[in-house]
Design a protein that fits this description.
With about 160 residues, the protein is mainly alpha-helical. It has helices spanning about 1-10, 25-65, 80-115, 125-150; strands spanning about 15, 20-25. Strands 1-2 form a two-stranded antiparallel sheet.
């Protein structure tokens, strides 16, 4: 990104074409402005997208953690069946989302490091936050697909 800005700033400000002298200073300024706007748009997109993904992972972890806390004793009443279905839904979601989400953690880390390299200011340490999300996701998935799944197995009809 900065290489392009440097190439533009190194351009000649005036060029003689035969007997005509062309002043390219306004063009160079506009190019620099346009490149800066696109750099800002791209880095903002990367930053906002990464923050959004981290937030979504955390919400998913919180939702599943809350959803598998209550395991029904039986499956006789309508309420117990509803709770069982909710727990089963969370187990399905974990099974479907876990591997794909864990595969996305490393590219998100690389994006955060790239943004830091290019001077994008971040109020939080997203590398630590990503590592925490990864650990929490592994823990909640092990709990959901282990003891919780075993506990509801006899209740399924």
């Amino acid at each position: 990104m900065n290489r392009i800005k440097q190439q533009i700033s190194e351009m000649k400000t005036s060029i003689d074409i035969g007997w005509v002298r062309v002043n390219s200073t306004p063009l160079i300024r506009e190019l620099q402005k346009t490149v800066s706007e696109w750099i800002e748009a791209y880095t903002s997109f990367l930053f906002n997208n990464t923050v959004s993904e981290i937030t979504n992972i955390q919400k998913f972890i919180d939702e599943v953690t809350g959803g598998i806390k209550v395991i029904p004793e039986g499956a006789e009443t309508k309420r117990e069946k509803e709770i069982l279905m909710q727990v089963m839904t969370h187990l399905r979601d974990v099974k479907m989302i876990k591997d794909r989400t864990l595969d996305e953690v490393e590219p998100m880390k690389q994006t955060v490091m790239l943004l830091k390299k290019h001077g994008v200011k971040m109020e939080e340490d997203f590398l630590v936050k990503l590592e925490n999300c990864k650990t929490q996701l592994v823990e909640v998935s092990e709990k959901a697909l282990g003891p919780v799944k075993e506990a509801i197995l006899p209740l399924q009809n």
